[in-house]
Amino acid sequence: MRKLTKEDQTFSNCLIDAYNNEDIKTVLVMGFEDDDKFMISLMSALEAEKNARVKLRVNLLEHTKELVQRAVDQYLKNTKVAFNTKNPLNIFGRKIPVDQWGRNSSFPVYNDISIYYPVQTVIDGGNSNDFKKFSEALSNDHSKLRILVTTNDVTKGYLKLDLLSNVVDKIMVLDSSEKFPEQYNIILNNLNEDRIYYENFELDN
């Protein structure tokens, strides 16, 4: 089972700091290790405040369930992921309600933290209707903090980050290069680069 590294904890602390910063409403989480991005974002959300109201907001329910199960398997033994819009995600002794933002984009939402996962399919520029619904869902989400978590984000230009320029207050990059050095080096070799493009982003955007 995986454990949090020093870099993971630093990232988590920064995410909790964002929750406590009134000037930050939306954070975009990037990084090459998708399972860690989700799990550390979720753990941070649950630790941000005692009994914080945390909701998982998804687009495609079954696909996200597979992604969440894969991520959970890295940190928890024998934990079966089973959730839908009527039954919450039971994890870490908490019940995390789940909804589909695409179906509920016009509904007002009031949580302490909303986690949108995954979001790359709506910010790759491929489906303007999905992005319109996504934007509507965000505008009607009045949670204290909205966390957007990507997958498959290592190729520069794949994600149209400019689409979120008026939405995202802070981009946070989970540095997993020391935790998974072999995976990191394979990615750099495939990209023919010495860094992933978002490693040039400052921690505070």
What does this structure look like?
The protein has 205 residues and is an alpha/beta fold. It has one domain: Rossmann fold. 31% of the residues lie in helices and 16% in strands. The protein is built from 5 helices and 8 strands. The chain has helices at residues 6-19, 34-47, 61-73, 128-139, 181-191; strands spanning 26-30, 54-58, 89-91, 94-96, 98-100, 113-116, 145-149, 170-173. A 6-stranded parallel β-sheet has the order 5-2-6-7-1-8, covered by helices on one side. A two-stranded antiparallel sheet has the order 3-4. Strand 3 and strand 4 (94-96) form a beta hairpin. It is globular. The relative contact order is 0.21. The model has no long low-confidence stretch (mean pLDDT 94).
